[in-house]
Amino acid sequence: MGHHTRRESLSAPHVASRPDHFHEAFTADLLWPFEKLEGIERDDVRETAYEIFFTACRSSPGFGGRNALTFYSSSNSHNEHGGEGSLLPSSSGTNKPGGERVVTTPTSRVKRTLGLKMLKRSPQRRMSTGAGAGGAAAAPLSPGGHGGHTSNSSSPGYSYTVPQLVRPRRPMTSAEIMRQQMRVTEQSDNRLRKTLMRTLVGQMGRRAETIILPLELLRHLKPSEFNDSHEYHQWQRRQFKIMEAGLLLHPSIPLDKSNTFAMRLRDIIRISETKAIDTGKNSDTMRTLCNSVVSLSWQSSNGVPTDICHWADGYPLNIHLYVALLQSVFDIRDETLVLDEVDELLELMKKTWSTLGITRPIHNLCFTWVLFQQYVVTAQIEPDLLCASHAMLTEVANDAKRPDREVAYVNILSSVLTSMQGWAEKRLLNYHDYFQRGNVAQIENLLPLVLSATRILGHDFTITEGAGEEEREITLVDSSGDRVDYYIRSSVKNALTKITESGNVKSDTAEVKQEASEALLQLAKETEDLALKEREIFSPILKKWHPTAAAVAAVTLHNCYGAVLKQYLGTVFMLTAETVEVLQRAGKLEKLLVQMVVEDSAECEDGGKAIVREMIPYEVESVILNLLQKWINERLEKGKECFQRGKETETWNPKSKTEPYAQSVVELMKLAKETVDDFFEIPTGITEDLVLDLVDGLEVLFQDYASFVASCGTKQSYIPTLPPLTRCNRDSKFIKLWKKASPCSVGAADQLHQNIANEGHHPRPSTSRGTQRLYIRLNTLHYLHSHLHSLDKALSISPRTHPSTRNRFNNNRRANSTTASYFELVSTFIQAAWQNVSEVAAYRLIFLDSNSVFYDSLYVDDVANARIRPALRILKQNLTLMTAILTDRAQALAIKEVMKASFEAFLMVLLAGGSSRVFYRSDHEMIEEDFESLKRVFCTCGEGLIAEEVVEREAEVVEGIIALMGQITEQLVEDFSIVTCEKSGIGLMGSGQKLPMPPTTGRWNRSDPNTILRVLCHRNDTASNQFLKRTFQLAKRRLWTRCRSWTEQGADRGGGAATELAQQGADRGRKSATSECGCGLWWLVAVAMAVSSGSGLQFCSIGFRFCSGLGFLMVGGGLGFLIMVVAGGGHE
């Protein structure tokens, strides 16, 4: 304790104490443990307490008596006078002449026991003015001396000092110290002394507890002894308030509601509120007052007469008065200090116990409270006061264990300790707010006090764990460790909650989410700072009561931050850089807190396992992994949506010539590239597993898109149906006559060839819009495939990819691959789709778009007149258009497929050309020449798009079949027989056995029996005709079948009416004719009429030529023909 300047004389300036509002600022959260006194101010209580104190000590040295008077009290006992174990003092000092007691060598047993330091001031410095040489003697009861001039007062024997000369300083008496400590004016003190002199005239041995002091004051003090009537009225009102509180409101012995004296007293008190009561000797009011007060004060609980009047011993008045006395032990100049004279003052205060109804346990409890309250009032700057209060709790604890405790004492005990505990726990439950590095040592003083108070109260306590639905209450048996554990958890949680509430960790919009991320990052930093502060400042002190204080704080911080992190993650629906940063910062914080727990609990029996189990892991890596998976799934879902939009809106029309591919693939690959780029922008460790997860999803997406692009049908849908096998018959006389009879007519095939020849001078491509859209599909597949390479490169060279920590099946997929490509599977799939679309486009181009110049016209009727040259011109134009549309990388395969389709069509013409095609052996050279021309087209197409060896390899089959057509019929028959027997497993042919019909495989080659058979079917000679008829009974090609074909071809070019008439006539003739000649005639006429665009006379001339040439065999037919011609001519 520091030194300070003490008062040196009563004449020194009065030093006022701090105002009440200053005290209230520090005691706002310290509950007053005693009931309040309504209508009585603190100053009123203090002055009344001094009056009681002075009256009780009136016979003690220093209070006016020449010698110490005998003090009689029915409450005195061994324990109440400072027996063993009591902190009540046994004062030592010297008695000055005149009975004034002063402390010569201030040594305080109380301060030594409570740990309070002595002020160590010279007793000579606590001085007052005394009698000087030649000075008048002071009055006996005055603080100045024992003689002096008498006043004009009517009270006998009362005198007071009249200062005349400068008096030397003298030590202050206990009475003077007490008056100054209680801030009582000399005027009030003189009035009190005067009253006592008048009251005790002839009764100097009267005990203090028999004096009803307010009543005596009212009786003996007159208005003339006050400065004015208002002062007297206020003073009188104070006396009435005290009597009202002690006798009516808070009596020690309960009153009957019908008590007459109480009713009279209430009436008088009510009257005194407006004006002063006449207290003269002849006043009826005064007589009534005296009777009522005396009667109420001397009543007993059991009716037995008592020797103590009960006017100030009712609760809480007595406690208020006694606490006011105890508060006088604090120096009014420095309220953090206890006077060195505390022993003597407490000894004197003990004399008031009988009047106030105070016992030693109540004294100990009140003194404990006063010390604690003073510590709070003085802004907690003097820890000695707190230590002293804690020391007093030891006495209180001993008192609380006594079996003879009164109910009133127990109630007061509970109220005081609860108030102290509540104030202290408010700080301990939030010690981060109330204590810093400069005052953290106060915890070391405050915590023992709280624990002692808790033990005295014998309370268990309840703590709450968990949050939300998991919240639960746990009741713990009171113990120091559990209590401190509760304080640590609560304070840490409250501190972090306050930090959390200052930020914004709730996220709804994008801006708020960013703010929430920043707030959570800041919270992690402040949580880390809080943990370090806990470990450095608070834990070393709390460790004295809790061995793992730092570990408990770390666990609490971990769980509290985890709850905030969980709340934040509950609003995160996609992985962002901010989210990853938050999670990584949380992981760093978790490592620090776990390290704190491990270090602090290393000495525990279980090595800290129990407290570590309280930590709910953040599982940052798992959360990031899940969010990454979620992010991947969301991006893949966007890809699916993009793909679905493409399926619904794609028309396969290019945006421009510079972008000859579908727009859907552009959007899809753009999204895929953004996904890969954003994937590696995520600031976290990307493992090979995650890369493969992304690749797997993209592969499925790309495969689905490639399947969509390739869903354009198959090449089989464009290949014509194979016609039935028939044997070819040589030209009959009828056919020859037809050719003679109609030299001016133009056949359907001749007309078709003529038209193609005419178009050959200005050929134009025959590629349809549908085929061109197939080209766009090819370009789309190539675009997809080319961008796969860039994606694969981005995935492969990324430096942020780390080896996988999981045992994943797909991990080995890339390692075992020879290409080390992420998209190997989908690349293979795209190539298959590419192949399919190329085939479909090629077969559509040849068999649909070029059908009129290729399959439908090549070698029809006559090889010499239906050569391949016109078809090649159209083919070249189609190939030119194809290369103009297709991208460079797509051209080679597309042209190769067109070559295969062309070769296939060429074979179809030779082997499945139908009844309109017949071949002679002599046609072999022309066909071979045409095929060489066809090969040359592909060899010279583009700049090496197809290698010559590739063309030759694909042409081998066709050339082999052309070679068959150059063989003699007998050789073909022999080869056919041998191959058929080998294929069917017959071996050598026996007598009577027939060759089986070889199946149609569609895979043409010169060693295939079905291929050789088809060559024989199209061979126009007798040997082949006889062999086919004999071996397989194949039907001959009917003349009407050929004519029908010509009619269908001519229908596209002949006149409408003539064609329809010819068709009707032909059908009627076919039904009525009984001979082949008749039937053939009718069909020849129909063909002539369908092909010719001349008049009816021309039909007639043709008919007459037929009739004259055929003779009688054709008479019937000729007549019918003439009738039809006439009808037709008439129609025209």
Automatic annotation (TrEMBL):
Stretches for region Disordered: 76-107, 120-159
Coiled-coil residue spans: none
Low complexity bias: start-end ranges: 136-157
PROSITE patterns: MHD1, MHD2
Domain annotation MHD2: ranges: 865-976
Superkingdom of origin organism: Eukaryota
Keywords tagged on the record: Membrane, Transmembrane, Transmembrane helix
Transmembrane segments: 1080-1099, 1106-1127
UniProt keyword Phosphoprotein present: no
Residue intervals of the MHD1 domain: 580-722
UniProt xrefs under InterPro entries: Munc13_1, Munc13_dom-2, PATROL1_C, unc-13_homologue
UniProt name for this protein: Uncharacterized protein
Source organism: Lithocarpus litseifolius
